[in-house]
Amino acid sequence: MTPFRSSASFGKRQEYSAIAELLRRGHDVYQTLIDDQGIDCIIRKVVDGTPTYIDLQIKARSKECKPFDAARFAAFAIKDPRANFLFLFYAEWLNTNWVMPSLDLAKSAHRNKTGKNIGKYEILLSGMSGPRPTINRRFDKYRDDKGFKILEDTFTSLSRKITNQESSIVNAIDQESFESSPLPRSG
Fold first, then answer.
1. Nearest to residue 21, comparing CAs of 142, 6, 105, 13?
2. 17 partner at 20 to 30 Å CA-CA among 8, 68, 92, 171?
3. For residue 131, what pLDDT is reported?
């Protein structure tokens, strides 16, 4: 495989690897046709009978980069950070995943204030130990199984909110129906 073809297809291969992992963990995964909203796929899971959806952006770094950049993710946008929008980062050199809610990422990542990537974000999930890249322990709570647990917890939290909203709507409809129905006349 030519170097260009290898690097050009790396991101797509990693998206499919991430999707395979999500499927293995019991999620339905729907890929977007166009990544113009910063969403690579939508994940669906039924939690306590409630279908719940999460938007996911997948970012990957190949081991063809410099060791210092092993888990440096730069010049990316976080469009409309919200509870149901998560990022999955993968560093091939470290064979590590991080799953981060967009709200946490917007607080933790550096936002460029100047230059050609003004307004875009950068996060360094690795460090260096001599000539080799190491994992930045600051982000351990998002790493591998802990990160996928955040994904599960997000589904549970969103499902509860949806269930509460649906209950409120049903109660409002029931109350409105009760108030607008004629009372039976007594004899």
1. 13
2. 68
3. 92
Of 66, 102, 112, the closest CA to residue 89 belongs to 102
**pTM for the structure as a whole:** 0.85
73 by Cβ neighbours in 10 Å (0-12 / 13-18 / 19+) ranks as buried
Quick: pLDDT tens for 34-90: 888 899 999 999 998 889 999 999 999 988 889 999 999 999 999 999 999 999 999
Number of Cβ within 10 Å of residue 62's Cβ equals 16
pLDDT value of position 170: 66
Q: Domains plus CATH for the chain?
A: 3-180 (3.40.1350.10)
* H or E, element range at 99: strand 96-101
Helix (H, G, I), strand (E, B) or coil at 31: strand
Which residues, in sequence order, are bridge partners of residue 37?
A: none
Region 114-120 average pLDDT = 95
**Which is nearest to 96 in space by CA: 66, 64, 63?**
63
Backbone angles phi, psi at 100, to 5 degrees: -125, 130
